[in-house]
Amino acid sequence: MEEDVLLKEKEKAEEAMIEKAFQELLNDYLGTKHRKRVAIITKAFNFANHAHRGIKRRSGEPYIMHPIAVAKIVCNEIGLGSTSICAALLHDVVEDTDYTVEDIENIFGHKIAMIVDGLTKISGGIFGDRASAQAENFKKLLLTMSDDIRVILIKIADRLHNMRTLGSMLPNKQFKIAGETLYIYAPLANRLGLYKIKTELENLSFRYEHPEEYSEIEKKLEATASERDLVFKNFTDPIREQLDRMGLRYRILARVKSVYSIWNKMQTKHVPFEEIYDILAVRIIFEPSTPEEELNNCFDIYVAISKIYKPHPDRLRDWISHPKANGYQALHVTLMANNGQWIEVQIRSERMNDVAEQGFAAHWKYKEGGGSEDEGELEKWLRTIKEILDDPQPDAIDFLDTIKLNLFASEIFVFTPKGEIKTMPQNCTALDFAFSLHTDIGSHCIGAKVNHKLVPLSHKLQSGDQVEVLTSKSQRVQPEWEAFATTARARAKIASLLRKEAKGYQKEGETLLATFLHNEGIPQDDSTLDKLVRLHHLRNRDELYAAIGTQKVILGDEDRNLFKEKKGRNWKKLLTFSFGNKENKQAEEPRPTKSETEKIDTKEILKLTEESIRKNYIMADCCNSIPGDDVLGYLDEEGRVIIHKRQCPVAVRLKSSYGNRIIATQWDTHKELSFLVTIYIKGIDCMGLLNEVTQIISRQLNVNIRKLNIETIDGIFEGHIQLYVHDVDDVRTICNNLKQVQNIKQVTRVEEGK
Ligand code: MN
Description:
By secondary structure, the chain is α+β, with helices and mostly antiparallel strands.
């Protein structure tokens, strides 16, 4: 009886919580500029609430709290309207309950049903257990995205909420989800201009992968907060005075670098927290006096504040005249504060700020008013994606990397001979540019003129270059081009053209071979073909045909003898043959068939962990982790566990592609084995310094120096020390002790595999 009462009360409390969350969503929605379509949103909520009734999330919350939270993100953080809010509320209904897309269509109409359908198709993670499934899913995601961009925006909101509530998942699931988020969702969010969400996704992933480093940086940020507040106040007071005098409506915000970006910078620049000087940036957001004055106001503010503080000559970034491909617009300047510190100031209008935070959704919001031309950029990008999808590469991982190339790259501007501006990714080559103009221009190009000077196709373009592509009708795509094409479009086109060409040669080769075998009276069967493949050291029949077709292999006596001598030297042939056979088998055997790979599920992995992993692990040599590092295990196809550092780029790829094979791994014994690490030091050269360094290291118990390499240039010394240590604690102690030395300015462990 009592239990019943308790249960009823719990149910009541839950219902009240659900109702409250939904009312918050409605209020948020009513506060936006969108049409007030409360009825349909309420209907979607009631439908979803009913469909998910009684189901709980891992955290114990009623399931419906998740779709409500996703709808809130869609409304508040991405700025979408009622259609998207309804789709967000309904996004897991088809996937998790008995309702179908048709049911949704009957009740909510075609648009909402299509979006829910898109979301259902790409559910369950972009990356399945197998590479092919993963590429399939990813393709689906991008295809649905190009049909209706709202699908991917809601998917990102879904992922954001799952990341915010990741704590209740199992650790190996956490790694998979965090890895996938960092690998694909954060870059996608960035590409769609959702900076705020991108930053939060990165931060959350980082927090789960490196909890200690995360809290360390967080603590340091807290400890230095008041210091930054003071710098901010002193720096902005004179600016406020000036802007007031100009009669502008504005607000000034302090922007603090995210924990993840700080860590990233510490890793790539090998500097400690204390030496990151751009943690604080200042953002001036203004309301233009009239819409037409928006750009003028930006530059007026720039001129006004450059009179107060000295601007850095090389650090003016004009994203106003040339918006980034994701629509971002702002003017960035770096000014010298009175304390001698460089501070970046970002100047943007309220409209530009919305675009920066909410991405393309914000464009639509302003479209009715002013009309924006930048939207074309997104369309162009989607078209590129579609083109690549129409002609996918056979290797799934290559395919993903190709797409990813286009997500991360930052941009430069180059000019055509007619003065047209083209946006290209950084580090792109003249060849990439040729392909960006047209496939025919790319495939027939022989060289380029950059700023009127002749350059090879591999020449890297700089922002502001004027590029003229030279073509010739007789030119054809060259295999070497794959090495210096960097854009997704160029790479995909080159690969596809080469494949097409290879197919032609293969056909020719096949005919030539058939004629040859016929004339010699040799049967054209599997064994004959296999022997020829081996004879010419090729990998498969296609390669054999292609080699004959391109005349790299010319059929002759050697091939003839292979079959004729068989009788005379029978014993010898047999020996080589069986040996060769055995070798082949060995290479193939450990690789399980597809069905075997699929069978490995989490349970089996957990069983493996307890029984055999302890003995059967290998340290990955790409990142050389040592005891104490944040690591994870990857269960390979032979049942071995390969230990990577969590931030190792190889591990990131494994996590994303084979999440189910990832095992949460921790060190327990520390002081038994020795591992090699490299420490980088830099400082001011002085007498006896080297002696001091070696003293400090040898004082540490049982640590041995393997190699010491120090170079001094103009009074600055720089060096690498290779040491045998037991674990991360050893490295930390040594680094801390070295930092105590007055003339040593920088000490860091060199992260390998970076
Ligand atoms: Mn969901």
